[in-house]
Amino acid sequence: MKTKLFTKFLAVVGIMTMILGYSIQAGAASFTFTERAGFLVDSGTLSSSDAGTPFDDIKWYQNTTAGDYQVAPKAGEFNTIAWGTSNDAAGLLASDPWIDPAFPSIYNVYSAMRVFGQTGNVDSTFNTSTSFLSDPEGWVILTKLFHKNSSIAAAYYTLTNTSINGELTITPADYGFPDDKVSSIMFLETLNQEGSCPAGSPPGTPCPDYFIDVLSTFAPLYFTSGAGQYEVLFDLAPVSFASIDFPSANEVRVWTQEGEISQVNVMLKIAQVPEPASLLLLGLGLLGLGFIKRRKR
C-alpha cells in the first residue's frame, strides 16, 4: 500500500515538475530588430576582373524607393552595386542601374547586386533548429539580397569581390548589441557557353553565376535581456531563381540563374537559452516518470 502511494506521489511530482519547468521557460519574449545593410565601396573590399585597376570598374547607387527598401545603410555604404557596361568608370551613379528604361529586358544592361536590411518584430522560441528550410518555425527575414544577372559583353570587366556590412540592433537587450557583421563575398561571372559551366553548377544553359560566403558569417550571436539569455541564429533561404550548396566545410555557395533577378534572404531567429534551474526541474520530472515506468514493470 505504501509503495503504491509512493508511486502515485512520484507520478504527481514528476508531472508537476515537468509542467513547472516548462512554464518557467514557456513565456516567449518579444523583440524589435533592425538591420542596416550595405556594400562597402573602397578599393580594399570592392574589385573587378581587371587585374590592372580592379577598383575602377564597379559603380554604386543608393535606392530608397524600391518596394523591399526599409532601412538605410550606414553612412558611406550603399545598397546597390553595378558593373558590366563600361570600364574604368567607378563611382556613384546618378541614376538607378537596376532599371534602365532604354532596355525593356535585363540583357545588355548593368548586372547588379542589391541588399536591403529589414526591421520588424520577432518572438523568442525554444526551437533551436538552425535550418529554416527544414523547420521554419520562429524565423523572420533579416536581409533581402538580390542579383540582377544580365548578359555581360566579353569586352567588359565583371565583379569579383565585394563586402556587405550588416549592423544588427535588437531591443530590448541589456548586453550584446548593436553588432556589426561584415560578409566578404567572392563572385564569379561565368561564361554563357555550353560545356563551360564550373563544377557543381546546376543543370541548364547558359551557366548560372555564383557567389561564395564563409559560414562563419552566420555564426550565432548571444545577448541578455532582463533575466533571460538568448541566442540569435541565422540562415540563408533561396526565394527565386537561386539555389544553395556547400563546396567546402566553411563555405556556402549561392547560384543565380542567368537572365533573371534572383533573391536570397538572410533569416533570423531568437532562441531562449534554458536556465539551469529549469533544466533541473525538467530532469526531476523525467526522473520521477522514469521511476514509475520501472515500478510498473
Defining key terms:
297 residues, 8-stranded mixed sheet, alpha+beta, globular, 9-stranded antiparallel sheet, 17 strands
Write the layout of secondary structure elements.
Layout: H1 2-26, E1 30-40, E2 47-48, E3 59-61, E4 77-78, E5 80-83, E6 91-92, E7 111-117, E8 119-123, E9 140-148, E10 159-171, E11 179-188, E12 209-214, E13 221-225, E14 228-240, E15 242-248, E16 251-256, E17 261-272, H2 276-296
Parallel strand pairs: 3-6
Antiparallel strand pairs: 1-4, 1-8, 1-10, 2-10, 3-5, 5-7, 7-9, 9-17, 10-11, 11-12, 12-16, 13-14, 14-17, 15-16
Question: Any overview of this molecule?
Answer:
The protein is built from two helices and 17 strands. It has 297 residues and is of the alpha+beta class. Helix 1 runs antiparallel to helix 2. The longest helix has 25 residues. It is globular and about 60 Å long. The protein starts with a helix and ends with a helix. About 9% of the residues have low confidence.
Short précis:
The chain is built from two helices and 17 strands. It is an alpha+beta fold. A hairpin with a 7-residue loop joins strand 10 and strand 11.
- Helical region count? 2
Main sheet, how many strands, which sense, barrel?
A: 9 strands, antiparallel
Overall shape: it is globular
Strand coverage percent:
35-45%
- Give the mean pLDDT: 81
Which class of secondary structure composition applies to the elements? alpha+beta
The unreliable regions are: 9-15, 17-25, 277-286
- Rounded to an integer in angstroms, the radius of gyration calculated over CA atoms is 25 Å
Say how many strands there are.
17
Distance between the termini: 17 Å
Helix content: 10-25%
Return the string of H and E elements: HEEEEEEEEEEEEEEEEEH
